[in-house]
Amino acid sequence: xxxxxxxxxxxxxxxxxxxxxxxxxxxxxxxxxxxxxxxxxxxxxxxxxxxxxxxxxxxxxxxxxxxxxxxxxxxxxxxxxxxxxxxxxxxxxxxxxxxxxxxxxxxxxxxxxxxxxxxxxxxxxxxxxxxxxxxxxxxxxxxxxxxxxxxxxxxxxxxxxxxxxxxxxxxxxxxxxxxxxxxxxxxxxxxxxxxxxxxxxxxxxxxxxxxxxxxxxxxxxxxxxxxxxxxxxxxxxxxxxxxxxxxxxxxxxxxxxxxxxxxxxxxxxxxxxxxxxxxxxxxxxxxxxxxxxxxxxxxxxxxxxxxxxxxxxxxxxxxxxxxxxxxxxxxxxxxxxxxxxxxxxxxxxxxxxxxxxxxxxxxxxxxxxxxxxxxxxxxxxxxxxxxxxxxxxxxxxxxxxxxxxxxxxxxxxxxxxxxxxxxxxxxxxxxxxxxxxxxxxxxxxxxxxxxxxxxxxxxxxxxxxxxxxxxxxxxxxxxxxxxxxxxxxxxxxxxxxxxxxxx
Length: 503
What we know:
The protein is mainly beta. It is rod-shaped, with a radius of gyration of 56 Å. The N and C termini lie far apart (about 160 Å).
């Protein structure tokens, strides 16, 4: 027998089903009868192909995979049925053609990379790589970031798989990114894909200065009772440093400017300690210069003012502006009249300075009572003065703030003030600034009646003011902060009647 061709070639897709025809070698024999009956065979028989022994048709007989074997070189043998049989052979070459039966595969199931914050946009982060064993368009891979790319801070080259930044990254905004990258053979039909995870760590730099976050205004000042003792921990500095780890470890110190002798700050934990004593009545607010330094190399520093507000405790008693007060009371005064007002001062604040007045004894309690009139004690008649006659009464006056109590003595002379010289008013008030010069006039007195008289200040040792003629003059340097008010008596001696009047 002889073949019609010296060699046969064929191609078949790798996904061809079993029994799919591949080639049809043709042979003939010029003999006749059984000598011309032909039988075909294929060698090697282990290949995934079958040849029909009668027709010579070659078909698929097994699994084809171009990525494993893409070419088969076989021999087709034909023999006749003569005795002895005669045979012939011819090469058969079969090429396996590609179909898109293999998806892309990343070289790694996950990637990780790190870069410092503040790097310029366009900085390369990492390159991912996938491969596809298919051929041609079936193996052309396109890369894309499919999740985790918040605010599009990253981009990827669709051909090379290089991931790069599109913005300057900030560790304090986001320190880690979990990206998912997809590789797809997009030109294949149908396209197939693979995914990998990319973890990007943004490395912290020391790019943030520490800053105070508490007690930074007088409205949010650290409140400390004036009774706090030296050595007491009175508060703690709070700060913010957006950097992390050692870079965000901050040390605190009190700057050299002002109040460093009264307060100290623990360098490590920021605890604030009192070194001296506080007095609300002397000073309410303090400002500390706090110096902060972080753990970077070189360190970044921050400076700020920390405010401390001293809060009042009831450590001062109410204070009368004198220990003995003398007043004339007209016989014409009637029940309910306030014949005298005596103020007391308490340098504490708010509730600690609320004063309650009362009578603490003396024969005057039979004719007078003590009531609170604003910030003063008003001494009020409980009966008409005419029923008392000309007489002298004494009251012990109490002033208390609930904790401390002070006392003063009040002498009340019930007199006939209708004859002789007399004060136009027995309760005199005047205002003067602490800029007033010595010998400056504080107030002008009005004296009623006719005849000779003399004026004097009571008590005799009181020298802050002096009486010159009918004027009360400043006799000392005034300071409203230390002495906001003075209370003193005036005595008028009437030369005609030989009596004294008191205001």
